[in-house]
Amino acid sequence: MDFAIQREAMVALLRERQAIAEPVAAAMLAVPRHVFVPGVAPEDAYRDEPIVTKRDDEGRPISSSSQPAIMAIMLGQLGVEPGHRVLEIGAGTGYNAALLARLAGPGGRVVSVDIDEDVAGQARRHLAAAGPLRAEVVCADGGLGWPDLAPYDRLIATVGVWDLAPAWLAQLGAGGRLVVPLDLRGVQVSVAMERDGDHWVSRSVAPCGFMRMRGPYAGTEVTIMLRRDPDLVLGLPWPREVGDVAAVLDTAPTDVAIGAEPASPFLAGMGVSLWLALHEPRWCALAGKSAATGYAATAGIVEGDSIAVLAMEGPLAARGHGPDGGRLAEELAAHVRAWDEAGRPEATALRIEAHPSPATGSGGRSFDEAELEGAVVIRKRHTTLVVALR
């Protein structure tokens, strides 16, 4: 069975929920996703859900087949055309490489680079099982790109990227475009960028969430397993000391009301998390379940032995735990009100520039946030990001 009906149902569902480029829809109708996740029941392979395919020794996911919805968005952002040469960072199951090969057509070339030999090997086998496609998989550090086939017309990363690696920018040809899940102080956005003189400028931005890049080009993000069975995970944009957060989450909370509307639809997007990431250095993400509070995935502020997070049920509120939980809840509520007053901006409202950092010797300039009205400057190893509302 080729499960064409399941593919048609998956694409129809995606079209109901979002705009999807016709070439991308055609590729998804043609490529059998179930072949790339052989341990998954074929009917489950066509759900609009990510599928974890590998975990590390601590149980954290490190490889997956991404959710079809975000794959369709990013492929639409990338705009692969027949004959294009495409570099993919992060092979995953090989499914995205197969879609890229369909989009690039028989005259194009796709090379997918993964640092994990197990992942790369599985992707090769899946691609071979799916039929003749001009896509190859190599095991190497994706941060170095793959110069053998450069220059590329398009570059896409299917793994969370903390910074734009110099090799990627060097290996993209004139008029090239890259699409990466770029880290903005712990929150990821899928950003499509093209050259504009001596720097790079976003052409589109969309919310996303990917497993982080590993190896020398990994970022500063920290994932702390607070508890197992049920899982409770704390995410921080960079390493810092926190107290026994798991314990304080089981203590009685201090709630600070923010508004009368229900929390769930208000927090459905990633706008609040993005606002916190850009404006609050103590921000954190909390995912999983706490027996006392029942959180699923939310954002907040953590400081020492105290934490405040946005309640995901009932009326909109900031919920503080620990000795300073009440104060943190007040501060969190103030951030949410500021986001509301700004018009509740989401990722799609951002304009992002990436400039070579002066330390790279590439002629980059220095930035003073006071000079950039309303913009946020984020300094990385190789680039300096300037983030502003359009």
From TrEMBL:
Q: Per the record, GO CC terms?
A: cytoplasm
Q: What InterPro entries does its record include?
A: Methyltran_FxLD, PCMT, SAM-dependent_MTases_sf
- The residues forming the signal peptide are none
Q: Where does this polypeptide localize?
A: Cytoplasm
**NCBIfam families in the cross-refs:** methyltran_FxLD
Provide the top EC class: transferase
Would the keyword NADP be found if you checked this record's keyword annotation? no
Describe the family membership recorded for this protein in Swiss-Prot or TrEMBL. Answer: Belongs to the methyltransferase superfamily. L-isoaspartyl/D-aspartyl protein methyltransferase family.
User: Which UniProt key words apply to this protein?
Assistant: Cytoplasm, Methyltransferase, S-adenosyl-L-methionine, Transferase
Q: Please name the SUPFAM superfamilies in this protein's record.
A: S-adenosyl-L-methionine-dependent methyltransferases
Looking at the keywords, is Transferase present? yes
Q: Name one GO molecular function term.
A: protein-L-isoaspartate (D-aspartate) O-methyltransferase activity
Which Enzyme Commission numbers does its entry carry? 2.1.1.77
One GO process term, biological-process aspect: methylation
Point out the coiled-coil segments of this chain: none
Q: What is this protein called?
A: Protein-L-isoaspartate O-methyltransferase
Give the top-rank taxon of the lineage listed in the UniProt record for this protein: Bacteria
